[in-house]
């Protein structure tokens, strides 16, 4: 069987399973069974698929995923995240567009503690966006920062998606986690500049709020010192231990999980009920991610064994694209796919082809992986199927048109594209921090 026919069978099967509404992971498992039977030798092939599936998740390197998820779930279900947002709100009373800045600042901090884009957007969208609309904020400032900062959780560690990408692509997980810090903070700073410029150029986009709380230092700044600064030390412990070479990503994630437990216990909010809820949600999310990794790894093996990966790689190699143009083509494809499929599917479909091409062209895979994460992040916001757009609509007041949410996301998508272009043009910005752990 030629590789073109093999690729057509696998692609058509995957499309058909998607079309009938089968979940992504089950669709890939279904294609794996078809491919195992056709290309790996019938019943023996199916046995091999099962063995490959088991081996793919039997890896110590995947342990950061449940531990990073656990960090965010504990902070979310104990209510510490809400206290942190309130503390930031008190400290930023005199800031133009105060609530929009609070959503951006709080979201960035929560992204550095949870690693969950959906949880970030749901938390801020449910608490701040309706209040901003009632106070007279424009939809761009009420919805846009909440969605945009939710996507930053893809970049700033702890990012389960970065761990997944590193595992599937064979890229250093610690370098991906460390390398996402500067682009993520640059993106957050650019969002802040946009909010302040919007408030200055269009005063009607945000109300000129007076001081909402009286009191001195203890009333305004002590809650920030009490409820935000100690939590920031969790991030410092996780990243600092990796930068110093003291801990691997797995060990650093364990430090973060233990620190989250100790912090919530010290605050007196860690109850048996909240711990049980956090652990159950951690198990649900982690099992889902590990199933995805198992399906994706086996799918990559079947593509390789059937000759599809080698065939596609040979065609693109014969086009004589330089490394720079090859990277551009990869990023454009990811941006287009982000409009129609979810982020996990993007990785599962593209990585079996991208990584052999990148290795053959001697492309820095850490640089490529971080730009892929930004492209994946942009896909969270691009219509019509950006998942954070759907989350925002669910959190927004009833009756909010989806087109209004699309328009609110547009300027922030533009900012993210600028940051992606800077990462492409200035690889040193991406490679500086990961270079410290060589």
Rg value: 22 Å
The number of distinct β-strands equals 0
Strand-pairing-aware structural class: mainly alpha
**H-E order:** HHHHHHHHHHHHHHHHHHHHHHHH
Number of helices: 24
Instruction: Classify the helix fraction into a percent range.
Output: over 70%
Low-confidence stretches are: none
- Overall morphology: globular
Mind describing the biggest β-sheet?
Answer: none
What does this structure look like?
This protein is mainly α and 438 residues long. It folds into 2 domains: 26-58, no CATH class; 59-435, no CATH class. It contains 24 helices and no strands. The longest helix is centred in the middle third of the chain and has 35 residues, at 272-306. The protein is globular, with a radius of gyration of 22 Å. The mean pLDDT is 82.
SSE blueprint and pairings:
Blueprint: H1 3-19, H2 24-39, H3 42-57, H4 64-77, H5 80-91, H6 98-114, H7 117-127, H8 129-135, H9 139-152, H10 160-169, H11 173-179, H12 181-201, H13 217-220, H14 222-227, H15 229-243, H16 249-267, H17 272-306, H18 308-318, H19 323-337, H20 343-360, H21 365-379, H22 387-395, H23 402-425, H24 427-435
Helix pairs in contact: 1-2, 2-3, 2-17, 3-17, 4-10, 4-16, 4-17, 5-6, 6-7, 6-9, 6-12, 7-9, 7-22, 8-9, 9-12, 9-23, 10-11, 10-20, 11-24, 12-23, 15-16, 17-20, 18-20, 19-20, 19-21, 20-21, 21-23, 22-23, 23-24
Write out key terms for the chains shown.
single chain, 438 residues, mainly alpha, 2 domains, 78% helix, globular
Short description:
78% of the residues lie in helices and 0% in strands.
């Amino acid at each position: 069987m030629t590789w073109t026919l093999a690729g057509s069978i696998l692609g058509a099967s995957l499309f058909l399973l998607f079309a009938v509404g089968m979940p992504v992971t089950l669709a890939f498992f279904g294609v794996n069974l078809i491919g195992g039977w056709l290309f790996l030798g019938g019943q023996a092939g199916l046995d091999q698929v099962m063995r490959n599936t088991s081996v793919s998740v039997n890896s110590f390197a995947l342990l950061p995923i449940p531990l990073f998820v656990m960090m965010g779930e504990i902070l979310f279900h104990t209510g510490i995240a809400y206290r942190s947002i309130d503390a930031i709100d008190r400290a930023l009373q005199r800031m133009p567009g105060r609530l929009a800045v609070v959503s951006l600042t709080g979201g960035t901090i929560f992204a550095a503690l949870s690693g969950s884009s959906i949880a970030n957007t749901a938390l801020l969208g449910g608490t701040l966006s309706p209040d901003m609309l009632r106070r007279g904020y424009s939809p761009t400032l009420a919805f846009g920062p909440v969605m945009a900062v939710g996507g930053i959780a893809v970049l700033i560690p702890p990012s389960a998606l970065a761990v997944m990408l590193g595992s599937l692509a064979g890229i250093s997980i610690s370098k991906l986690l460390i390398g996402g810090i500067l682009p993520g903070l640059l993106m957050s700073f650019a969002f802040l500049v946009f909010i302040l410029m919007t408030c200055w150029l269009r005063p009607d986009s945000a109300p000129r709020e007076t001081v909402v709380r009286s009191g001195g230092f203890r009333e305004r700044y002590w809650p920030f010192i009490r409820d935000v600064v100690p939590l920031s030390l969790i991030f410092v412990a996780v990243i600092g231990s990796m930068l110093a070479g003291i801990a691997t990503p797995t060990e650093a994630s364990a430090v973060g999980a233990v620190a989250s437990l100790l912090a919530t216990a010290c605050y007196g909010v860690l109850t048996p009920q909240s711990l049980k809820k956090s652990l159950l949600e951690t198990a649900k999310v982690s099992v889902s991610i590990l199933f995805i990794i198992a399906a994706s790894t086996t799918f990559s093996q079947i593509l390789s064994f059937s000759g599809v990966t080698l065939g596609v790689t040979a065609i693109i190699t014969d086009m004589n694209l330089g490394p720079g143009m090859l990277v551009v083509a990869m990023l454009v494809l990811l941006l287009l796919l982000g409009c129609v499929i979810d982020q996990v599917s993007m990785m599962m479909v593209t990585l079996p082809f991208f990584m052999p091409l990148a290795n053959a062209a001697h492309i820095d895979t850490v640089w490529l992986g971080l730009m892929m994460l930004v492209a994946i992040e942009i896909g969270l916001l691009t219509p019509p199927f950006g998942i954070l757009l759907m989350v925002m609509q669910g959190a927004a007041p009833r009756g909010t048109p989806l087109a209004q949410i699309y328009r609110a996301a547009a300027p922030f998508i533009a900012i993210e594209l600028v940051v992606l272009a800077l990462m492409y043009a200035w690889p040193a910005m991406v490679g500086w921090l990961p270079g410290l752990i060589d």
